[in-house]
Each structure stands twice: as C-alpha cells, then as structure tokens.
Amino acid sequence: xxxYLFSPPSVPSLPIRxxxxxxxxxxxxxxxxxxxxxxxxxxxxVDKSTDNPFYFTKSPSALVESGATIPYPPRTQNYxxxxxxxxxxxxxxxxxxxxxxxxxxxxxxxxLDMTRRDLQLVARDKGRPWDTGKDVEQGAVCSEIVPMxxxxxxxxxxxxxxNGVTKQSSxxxxxxxxxxxxxxxxxxxxxxxxxxxxxxxxxxxxxxxVAGDRLHGRVEGVADVxxxxxxxx
Length: 233
Fold this sequence. Notes:
Layout: E1 13-15, E2 22-24, E3 28-31, H1 36-41, E4 55-58, E5 63-65, E6 68-71, E7 79-81, E8 83-89, H2 98-101, E9 105-113, E10 115-116, H3 117-125, H4 131-134, E11 140-142, E12 146-147, E13 157-162, E14 165-171, H5 179-186, E15 197-199, E16 207-208, E17 214-219, E18 223-230
Parallel strand pairs: 3-15, 5-11, 6-18
Antiparallel strand pairs: 1-2, 3-4, 7-10, 7-16, 8-9, 8-15, 9-11, 9-12, 13-14, 13-17, 17-18
C-alpha cells in the first residue's frame, strides 16, 4: 500500500441518471468559439473553411455539481456565465475519424463554463495563456450525466436564465463544429479516455453575474443545470 505525505484528493465524479454508480472524471476540455453569433460577440469571427477548432482545459478539481452555491471568485470584476452542452466519453480513442467518434460517446450533460472575462481578455490581447481567466476554482459546473451511448446529439434548444430572465437562447444545430467533428479533432491532440468531458461551446448572450444571482440552464432532451452565486469568500 502506498504511503502519502498527506491524503490525496478524492476522484472528481458526477452522478449518472438512473444508476447508483458515479461517473469518474478524467479531464475537462472546452471548445472555444463554437457558435458563430458568440464568436462575433467576442470580436473574433470564425470561418470554418480556414479555421480549426481550438481548446482550453480546466483542472478536474474545478468541477462542481449542478445546484451548488459558490462564492464570487477573487481577482475579477466581470465574472461571466457560458451555457454549454457537455459530452461525456466512455471509451478511449486516438486519431479517430468523425464516423468512429460516436462510439466514444457515453452520454451528455448540461454545463456552465464560468469565466473571469476581464482576466481572459487581458491575457488574450497580450498573447498570454487564459488559465487565470478560465481555470477558476468551482468554475466548471455540470449536471448529472445522462447515458446516451453512441448517440450523436445534433439539435435541441439550449438556454440560460439568470434570476428568471432569459440571457442565452439558441440551438445545438448552430454548433460550428458538430459533436463528432469535435471528438475526432480533439483525438488528434490527445489520447482521449473514459471520463473525459468535452464542453462543446456557448451561444451568444454571455454576460456577468453578481452575488445573489441564480442561474438555470437547459439543454433540450438532455438535462438542466443550476447555480447560485454567493458573496465573495
């Protein structure tokens, strides 16, 4: 038995709808600017004929379950929500084709990519990494995993309300790179593994939250996700 200097952290995991087992998390991948309207909103339009998908990651320890109350994070004055469809992988894959990619899918979830937008934009404009803007403690929110093995979700309403007011409203069919294209492309960079989550991008309408705000998002046919923003710790 291995002895450690201090107790190692437990494995991050999420509940699975209809099962007693939990879904262990390996890595968190995020697709940047994967809806045209959001890309324009961010001042960086995307041309699929010449551009490739790009990604960033968050630490698995940043994951929190839907329904959580989290404090407004430090070092930001502009904390944003981004509502997303999340793909959960259940099989490994490396350099898979789009046709092969669907076999890696275990299921889906609804998620929030919370972002220190002010820090992200400063880093972007200075050509620096986005880590402090994106890899925020408790900044990756996710619903339960809904098993849908081998199913490719290609359409369905995606929306987010803040305090009962709709802020984001779009459809999965507006993804620039669809689910199988994302998985296939990401597998050219990484040996994808069971337990990897892929946040597939957010539609237009992103914006700031303040302490006291309550967020509720939904991906039609998949799941709902909720979050409460508390005062800074």
